[in-house]
Amino acid sequence: MPYRSFGALCDVVEGFTGITTAGAALVHVIAGYNRVLAGLDPRDNRVHKWSFLAPVSWLTIAENVTGTATGVYNAGTDTTTITATTAIFTPEQVGTDITVATLAAALPIASYTSTTIVVATGGEDFSGKAVSLPHHGFYDLPTDFAGLVEPPVYPWPNTARTATLTAAPYEVFDRWRQGHYTGVPKRFAVLAKAQVSGAKQTWCLTVDPHPDADYIIRYRYQADPATPTDASDKYPVGGAFMDVAYEYAALADAELKLQHTSSRMETRFQQHMVACIDDDSAFYENFGPVSMADAE
């Protein structure tokens, strides 16, 4: 069974429309792709949840964040201004200690200036040294993240590692306010990150309490696939069994928007969409939760 790239699907649309203007075919491929991913079943207009849009992922909840920094000591104030080479600081780290390689004692962070600059109490001059401090508590989720399918859990049995529980962001932040407690994280909240102009919305996860070691959590999330581009090395999600549905979805969009009198492509799209929904449902049933339950 073929598994064609977005570039190859654009070529198919160009062959159907006869229009080779740059970007013309891609418009129909994008529209068809989004239509398929929406999962509307032609038989009853119910939404089918595609199994491949709920991928499994792992996230490391790190205890510390590390980097390289330079410190300038001020004897008059007995403070050291520490400048990191990368953005590793946040205001939440004020009150915690930063460890600097070659310094005998950790330095308490007294104030936050920017993501690359903090001021610590005590210290001395140093240059290009490895530093470590408690993680700021915000862990980036995948760039295609669009929501959790279910709460994350720790992947292996351990009496100390219970399943994490949902919590409101305010509850997590309020518990942070009460003190710099550490331990096995038992609560989490998903937060939207500030959107950068021209970039896709991204998300992060925060936990309570702050981890006392590095932990790994496992979770499934709703994926928001990237917008197609007319490229030979970019492929649709879902694998080969979805290929024909994507093809006829694009052709049906071209047929409609170019006002073709025939609805032949729309008919074929609906046939293949139904087949893909049934195949996906059968695959998930046969190799998803049922087989896992049988294995226990």
Description:
- The structure is a single chain.
- This protein has 296 residues and is of the alpha+beta class.
- It folds into three domains: 6-50 and 238-295, no CATH class; 56-61 and 137-223; 64-134, Thrombin, subunit H (Beta Barrel).
- It is built from six helices and 15 strands.
- Strands 2-3-6-5-4-7 form a six-stranded antiparallel barrel. Strands 8-13-12-10 form a four-stranded mixed sheet, with helices on one face. A three-stranded antiparallel sheet has the order 1-15-9, with no helix packed on it.
- A hairpin with a 6-residue loop joins strand 4 (97-100) and strand 5.
- The two termini are 34 Å apart.
List keywords for this structure.
296 residues, alpha+beta, Thrombin, subunit H, six-stranded antiparallel beta barrel, 6 helices, 28% strand, disordered C terminus
Question: How would you summarize what this structure contains?
Answer:
The chain is an alpha+beta fold. The chain has helices spanning 6-17, 24-38, 169-177, 243-257, 264-287, 289-295; strands at 56-61, 64-74, 79-84, 97-100, 107-114, 117-121, 126-134, 138-140, 145-148, 165-166, 182-183, 187-192, 203-208, 210-211, 215-223. It is built from 6 helices and 15 strands.
Task: Describe the secondary structure blueprint for this structure.
Elements: H1 6-17, H2 24-38, E1 56-61, E2 64-74, E3 79-84, E4 97-100, E5 107-114, E6 117-121, E7 126-134, E8 138-140, E9 145-148, E10 165-166, H3 169-177, E11 182-183, E12 187-192, E13 203-208, E14 210-211, E15 215-223, H4 243-257, H5 264-287, H6 289-295
Parallel strand pairs: 10-12, 11-14
Antiparallel strand pairs: 1-15, 2-3, 2-7, 3-6, 4-5, 4-7, 5-6, 8-13, 9-15, 12-13
Helix pairs in contact: 1-2, 1-4, 2-4, 4-5, 5-6
